[in-house]
Amino acid sequence: MDNPKINQPFDDKKIIGIIAVLVMLGLFLVVVTNVTSRVLSGARAFVDAESVWSKTQKEASLYLVRYLQEEEQIYYRQFKESVEVTEGYRLATEQMLKEDPDFEIIRPGYEKRRHCTNCTYTTWRCKIARC
């Protein structure tokens, strides 16, 4: 006996339905991957910012000690620049931890250092995840 279900060709509606489900799953995976990438980039940028903040604190104390020892104005200017970077990072971090952060303060605070690695993602992560 022939099984009638085995010999029947696929219905066009079934094929289109299967393809639609697979396309939707693919799009969902693309969106999830994009969001995950942004969140991880934001976290990495936040950790990088903390690292730069710590480094500039150490540089500031080093420049201050050199200025006190050698009394050259170049060391005092470098000390002031390092303190400005540390202050910018402090202001940005304080804003990010507030209930309603001001994003116009966060980005310039992180950009006080010559480069801002993924600070767009840091502010985006803060907007989405409420820090």
How would you characterize this protein structure?
- With 131 residues, the chain is mainly α.
- The protein has a domain at 40-129.
- The protein has helices at residues 4-7, 12-70, 73-97, 103-110, 119-129.
- The chain is rod-shaped.
Task: Please summarize what this structure is.
The protein has five helices and no strands.
Mean pLDDT: 79
Helix content: over 70%
* Assembly level: single chain
Taking Cα atoms only, what radius of gyration do you get, to the nearest Å? 27 Å
Output the keywords.
5 helices, mainly alpha, single chain, rod-shaped, 131 residues
Helix-strand layout with pairing:
Layout: H1 4-7, H2 12-70, H3 73-97, H4 103-110, H5 119-129
